[in-house]
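A.,

Following up on our hallway conversation. Structure tokens first:
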């Protein structure tokens, strides 16, 4: 989703990207944000400033995220595979086979994916806010597989009823870009970020007397996000996708919001809106405990 209030990053300013022009200080030579993994996660999980979920800057991350950013990766792949089998979930449904590596960059040293990027689809219904009430139904058009299966965006889509869809057959092994930052940095950034889109509807926010359409005949904005932003079924499936990606990377990937990755770049996006990090943390914890790992 496009934002309308960002300060433009001029062409002349692009080289400063390497020294921290973006909100979390992405270094385009090392392909990492600044700070420890925990510091990066805290910065990259800052939502849009219009979001009611915004925690205080520097606040602790909810369990288990703070712990995952500082502990060794010990999750047993075979236990995870058995868990999925017992629950009738295919590895392909949550990001791809556990015995295949995640994507790598073509940059020197071919670094593997480090960031697990959470998006919302910002599906704009403009003034048709009545669509919000039926949006969690499996039969809603926004929850149908065919709505997303040909999309050129992301590695995975998760619908509001918890289905997951591989767009164009992609999974986490395919280097793919889905943020402004990755396009500003260029091809070297391809493969460092894994992208998961979560279905959310948006509507237009109008001032009194304002037309919902702009001069081009398009909806003026998509600033009103659904509340709650996401369903339990989405948080659950997103937790499994995070475990799939991290298992294949053999480290807990740094979770990140799209909005935080693009912060400071002109025309950056604002998603995900109304993402409940504590609720997602509980879904991750539930899986960890079921797999014999600590939730702390
Ligand atoms: Zn996004």
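Then the amino acids I'd put at each of the 296 positions:
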């Amino acid at each position: 989703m496009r934002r309308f209030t960002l300060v433009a990053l001029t062409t002349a300013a692009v080289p400063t990207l390497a020294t921290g022009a973006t909100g979390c200080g992405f270094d385009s030579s090392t392909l990492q944000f600044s700070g420890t993994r925990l510091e990066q996660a805290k910065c990259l999980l800052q939502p849009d400033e219009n979001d009611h979920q915004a925690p205080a800057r520097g606040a602790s991350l909810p369990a288990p995220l703070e712990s995952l950013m500082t502990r060794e990766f010990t999750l047993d792949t075979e236990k995870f595979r058995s868990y999925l089998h017992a629950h009738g979930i295919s590895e392909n449904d949550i990001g791809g086979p556990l015995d295949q590596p995640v994507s790598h960059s073509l940059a020197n040293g071919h670094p593997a994916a480090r960031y697990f990027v959470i998006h919302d689809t910002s599906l704009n219904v403009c003034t048709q806010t009545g669509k919000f009430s039926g949006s969690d139904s499996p039969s809603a058009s926004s929850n149908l597989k065919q709505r997303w299966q040909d999309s050129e965006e992301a590695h995975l889509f998760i619908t509001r009823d918890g289905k997951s869809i591989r767009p164009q057959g992609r999974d986490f092994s395919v280097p793919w870009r889905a943020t402004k930052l990755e396009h500003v940095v260029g091809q070297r950034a391809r493969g460092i970020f894994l992208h998961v889109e979560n279905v959310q509807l948006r509507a237009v926010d109008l001032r009194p007397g304002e037309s919902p359409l702009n001069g081009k005949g398009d909806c003026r904005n998509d600033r009103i996000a659904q509340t709650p932003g996401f369903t339990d079924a989405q948080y659950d499936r997103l937790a499994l996708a995070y475990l799939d990606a991290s298992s294949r990377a053999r480290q807990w990937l740094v979770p990140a919001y799209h909005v935080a990755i693009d912060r400071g770049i002109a025309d950056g996006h604002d998603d995900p809106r109304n993402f409940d990090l504590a609720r997602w943390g509980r879904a991750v914890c539930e899986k960890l405990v079921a797999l014999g790992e600590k939730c702390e």
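The two ends are 34 Å apart (CA to CA). Curious whether your intuition agrees with the design.

B.
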